[in-house]
Design brief:
alpha/beta, about 350 residues, about 40% helix, 6-stranded mixed β-sheet, 7-stranded parallel β-sheet
């Protein structure tokens, strides 16, 4: 009774006759929430945490209601890893006219949704890990990943013996090109002067074989620490890293257990917390439509994990001490990441 979670299949969504037969204004309930997963939750903790945070918010909201008040319902759709299909599936959700808001998380989604806000003007969208201002049908939460990238690069630079680090990305997009790659490289070179960063693209978010191939190629050039930001393809990166004794830094989750002794750092985004707070704000009618809210390290939405036993076992004490000093100086404001 607290919540209703349905898994929507593409087949059910792609029934135009059903969509045409009903009026969106007649069907739509503001408390009906669709969660659009641009991938598969089992392969992507960042998306699993998105859904979990929204479901937590619905449970909390429903528990606060009096008898007879309309409860929040959460519908989850996994759109799969083929990005070419995301626009069609997102269009189907909007065309259904059922959901007060569609919530998702991916930097590419505001651009995909932009034309849908004209076709379906009553449909609202909230995107986490994304940015777009000026569209009154959309609200975004953007993580300031400058510090996250810099810290990951800094420890990579400290650990690297070859003074060559690498970043394997799924694809290029503004945040990758303007923040993640340059600030990772900056952190590495600030840690140890002269450290260089090799940057390569998988081309999608799922090709593990390509991830392994790129890792092999980086190893051949002397790279010995890599940051993978490539979704499911990171499994291939892990496999190759184990084979070549390459260390990995990690984004968005505590992943030390994925590859003990290989992963040297995890700098996570608190997606579940952000998703819950954002959903509660929506249900309370407090969403700032047309804006992007930026949250980050000093707000507590990004955390460099220092208390995991595997971190302590894998990273030498002198390097952990240097990271603790850097983290403390960032938190107390005595040091700020240099702007590029």
């Amino acid at each position: 009774m607290n919540k209703k979670i349905l898994s929507l299949t593409a087949a059910a969504l792609l029934l135009p006759a059903l969509f045409c037969a009903c009026s969106g204004k007649e069907q739509r309930k503001t408390t009906s929430i669709a969660v659009f997963i641009p991938g598969i939750m089992a392969d992507s903790p960042i998306y699993a945490n998105l859904a979990r945070g929204i479901q937590d918010a619905a449970e909390q909201y429903n528990a606060s209601l009096s008898d007879g008040q309309e409860k929040a319902e959460v519908y989850v759709m996994e759109a799969g890893t083929n990005q070419a299909e995301w626009a069609t599936k997102l269009t189907s959700l909007a065309a259904a006219g059922t959901y007060g808001v569609i919530i998702s998380s991916n930097p590419s989604l505001p651009e995909i949704a932009q034309p849908l806000t004209k076709r379906f003007p009553d449909q609202k969208f909230i995107f986490l890990d994304a940015a777009l201002d000026g569209n009154s049908s959309m609200a975004c939460i953007s993580y300031d990943q400058t510090v996250q990238s810099y810290l990951s690069g800094y420890i990579a630079g400290l650990v690297s013996k070859s003074h060559k680090v690498g970043l394997i990305a799924a694809q290029e997009y503004p945040v990758m090109n303007n923040i993640l790659h340059p600030y990772f490289a900056k952190g590495a070179s600030d840690a140890v002067s002269g450290t260089t960063c090799d940057f390569r693209l998988v081309g999608n978010w799922y090709d593990g074989a390509k991830g392994a191939e790129l890792t092999d190629a980086m190893y051949a050039t002397g790279v010995d620490v890599i940051l993978p930001i490539c979704g499911g393809a990171s499994q291939g990166v892990i496999s190759s890293a184990k084979e070549h004794n390459i260390n990995l830094t990690w984004f968005d989750e505590n992943a030390f257990a994925k590859a003990p002794g290989v992963i040297i750092s995890c700098c996570m985004v608190k997606q579940q917390q952000a998703a819950k707070e954002t959903t509660l704000a929506y249900l309370a009618g407090n969403t700032a439509w047309g804006t992007t809210k930026v949250v980050g390290f000093t707000d507590g939405y990004i955390e460099f994990i220092t208390d995991d036993p595997l971190y302590e076992q894998t990273v030498p004490q002198n390097i952990r001490s240097k990271m603790n000093e850097l983290i403390t100086s960032l938190k107390d404001g005595t040091f700020k990441v240099p702007q590029l």
